[in-house]
Amino acid sequence: MSSHREAPEIAKDPVADSSDLYAFVSPDKRDTVTLIANYVPLQLPSGGPNFFEFGDDVRYEIHIDNDGDGRPDVTYRFEFTTEITNPNSFLYNTGPIDSLDSKNWNRRQFYSLTRVADGREHRLAHKLPCPPCNVGPLSTPKYADLVRQATYSLSTGERVFAGQRADGFFVDLGAIFDLGTLRPFQQLHVAGKKIFKAEGEPVNATDRMNVHSIAVQVPLERVRRRANRYGAADRASVIGVWTSASRRQVRVLGDRGGADTSTGPFTQVSRLGNPLFNEVIVPMSKKDLWNSLPPSEDKRFAQFVEQPELAALLPALYPDVFPNLDKLTKSKKARADLVAILLTGVPAGLIDGFTNATGEVQADMLRLNTAIPPTRRPDRFGVLGGDLAGFPNGRRVGDDVVSIALRAIAGVTVPLVDKTFQPDAAAAAVTPGLSAADVTAPFLGNFPYLGTPYDGFNNPPAAS
Predict the structure, then answer these.
(1) Residue 353 lies in a domain
(2) Which of 12, 65, 350, 436 is deepest in the core (most CB within 10 A)?
(3) How far apart are CA 347 and CA 401, in angstroms?
């Protein structure tokens, strides 16, 4: 979920599949914004000898829109190359990897970083090494040291990292995709009430899985458009963020072991802004189309935001639990609250002291008001919990985006635009029942924030 296997075609191409996107004002460096895009989802840590990596034939990009047109004004582009040290060995490493230039490491990956702004490309770095995958205590005994070596501060002010991290997204995939079961409510499910006598314990399906992250920490002046002031009420403080992956249009397979050849212009095969948008909002027949388009084209999908299928399913799956939502859905009234949250940003006046509106262009982007400072004690429910620095104002690594999204769809946010609507009592309690505490690898307090990837030797944990 979020975007781990959200569309039929990209599910067949995990190396280009964007799984999660984060954008937040850095809590330990408040004059910067941190942008993290995860790819290659659902990695089994023990998956050797060909451990997971970025694609040399994929162009990975993080885009920033600072004028509200749904098109990138600033782009950070990551492009990778792979080198084999010993072509006669099948092994990933032949001994401990204690540094990024270790002779024991047989398959190394490097990347270049390019900033695209004002129609010009500026290469910020070339051939920066990634850390290895976290193989185990014998192969990568001091993994945190390798991550520190692979975290770079650039002369232009950015910090950058690209490599494996623990998947920090928490979701009960097994329950949700079993006819929309929410284990804390499973005994109320239309079919579950015949099976379950009480609520169940949720399971974090992505726990102890890894991803590959591209992460960049950028000074605020490098992402915001020029303005005289950047207050919380000023449009210039708000940026829109999304990530994409692109491949060459033509690929020719090599014959009899010959190298494959890719040619032609790059074409987008994956993108991600708000979590769950393509996963839950866009219908199956249009998911691959959505992945190929820029956010500026998202007015084509507005009807699915205005009348989301899940809003009609909740009352059907949980009879008598969501009567007010059922009435609203059957009225066919457009969900202006969801349009604001997902497509235009929340305008001023709906929530005290808050706005992240970008204008009239409907575009799926993570909208971040960079003038709202990080909170000392973040609330995992973000704006719904009174924490204006959390989702849907950007997205932090610990935000409970599944619960927030479910509650919004269930009607909690409707009173923002319709004071006469009374959300169902269950709407504010609906949840899969998970939190950041259900992620085994703890988040970090500084860049790159996502936890140390799980190693193959200890996953699953050995029986005591």
Answers:
(1) yes
(2) 65
(3) 20
Question: Is 196 among the domain residues?
Answer: no
The angle, 0 to 180 degrees and rounded to 10, between the axes of the packed helices 309-317 and 323-330 is: 140
**CA separation for the pair 128, 142 (Å, rounded):** 20
- Please report which confidence band the pLDDT of residue 191 belongs to, taking 50, 70 and 90 as the band edges: very high
> CA torsion angle for 56, 8, 243, 114 (degrees, to 10)?
20
One-letter identity of residue 101 = D
Q: Is 256 inside a domain boundary? A: yes
* Entry pTM: 0.97
- Classify the C-alpha dihedral 191-196-198-201 as positive or negative: negative
Q: Do 15 and 236 contact (CB within 8 A), yes or no?
A: no
CA pair distance 214, 267, nearest whole angstrom: 20
Q: What range defines the domain where residue 425 resides? A: 10-171+206-437
CA 449, distance to chain mean position in Å, is 13
Number of domains in the chain: 1
Average pLDDT over residues 172-198: 94
pLDDT recorded at residue 462: 66
Six-digit token pair at 184? 């804390």
How far apart (Å, rounded) are the C-alpha atoms in residues 88 and 319?
63
pLDDT of 1 above 60: no
pLDDT one-digit tens code per residue, 66-108:
999 999 999 999 999 999 999 999 999 999 999 999 999 999 9
Nearest to 298 by CA among 307, 285, 286, 309: 286
| Helix or strand run (H / E) with residue 329 | helix 323-330
> Which distant-in-sequence residues (6+ apart) come within 8 Å of 26 by Cβ?
32, 33, 34, 217, 374, 447
Residues 6+ apart with CB under 8 A from 114: 76, 77, 79, 121, 122, 123, 124
Helix (H) or strand (E) holding 18: strand 18-25
Instruction: Give pLDDT, residue 253.
Output: 87
